[in-house]
Amino acid sequence: MTSEEEHAIRAWLTRIEETDPATIADVVHQCRYDMVGRNYLLALAAANKPQPKELDATGNDDRRTCNQCNNLMGRRCLAALRGEIAASRDHEPIRDMLMRCEGYAPKLTDPDQRPGRVRWPGLNRREVQMNDACDRSKGTKESDEVSDQRGAHS
Fold this sequence. Notes:
154 residues, mainly alpha
């Protein structure tokens, strides 16, 4: 991990008001050895511009911890295991950090029963844009192959 990447991750942790030194150390340590997790946090840091507070339209904090999610099994994230979020399959999230996650699955005690992809649709906007770009490039490649095959037969 470069010093610039560590700085971006630490700045993001500051933006989400993470102050626990042990949690910060755990995140930085994990990012040094887990490239997928590091890239995920760097994408979050780039996508989430500094805001005065993480509040929804009603003035409430709409973030959740992994401890509040049905996808947390022990120390592992089941959404990551199933490949539903951009993280390694054996992702061990920071369970008590408030965040917005597209893989969030509310427990019965959560008054808002919408899953993360519905609750925070902007989180996977980059993923959708990347998939669209891949689809377009595949479509162009396939149409070029068809044109090449037609040209070979004439």
